[in-house]
Design goal:
Order of helices and strands: HHHHHEEHH
Shape: elongated
Strand content: 5-15%
Structural class: mainly alpha
Helix content: 55-70%
Radius of gyration: 20 Å
CATH superfamily of the largest domain: Winged helix-like DNA-binding domain superfamily/Winged helix DNA-binding domain
Number of strands: 2
């Protein structure tokens, strides 16, 4: 069973999750109320954070959160091949290509031939793209801090460690 925090008692989404977990606890295996609650809350939080960041920060700039994430990676890594961007972004190569095409059209990213292989290209930020990423990054960081302000630094570190462990051992 789960106990609903009194602070969230008036939240319909949290009431539903508690109800679903209690109902699943009454069912035989393979029902797993704890796994359900964990996945449900993680997915729900992810959905809310993505929608919030996109709606407040990225859509007003004409971007998606994945588009920003690609530009952010280029900002940190420098020119990077699209295949590598797909590998580290949990995106398909086609999705990366589409995002790079859009960002290139908007003057934020450019394709550059690689010096050692003239057939291969790397995506790189333009000066306008670098400035745009810096501004969006500052805004997104402030918003992320607001989202996680309810956790103290040790709780944030623990949650990050636990999520990293799940990601490292995903099926």
């Amino acid at each position: 069973m789960t106990s609903l925090d009194p602070a969230g008692a008036d939240r319909p989404d949290l009431r539903y999750a508690a109800y679903a977990q209690e109902r699943l606890a009454q069912l035989p295996p393979p029902a797993d109320p704890e796994a359900f609650a964990l996945a449900h809350h993680l997915l729900h939080l992810s959905y809310l954070v993505v929608n919030d960041l996109e709606g407040r920060i990225h859509r007003p700039r004409g971007w998606t959160l994945p588009g920003f994430r690609l530009m952010f990676k280029l900002w940190l890594l420098g020119p990077t091949q699209p295949a590598r961007l797909a590998e580290i972004s949990a995106m398909s190569r086609a999705a990366v290509t589409n995002a790079v095409n859009t960002l290139e059209r908007d003057g934020l990213v450019e394709r550059r031939p690689l010096p050692d292989d003239r057939r291969a290209v790397a995506a790189a930020l333009t000066p306008a793209g670098e400035q745009a990423v810096r501004e969006a990054f500052a805004e997104q960081t402030r918003r992320e801090q607001e989202w996680f302000a309810v956790l103290d630094p040790q709780e944030r570190a623990t949650l990050t460690e636990l999520l990293t462990r799940v990601l490292a051992n995903r099926p």
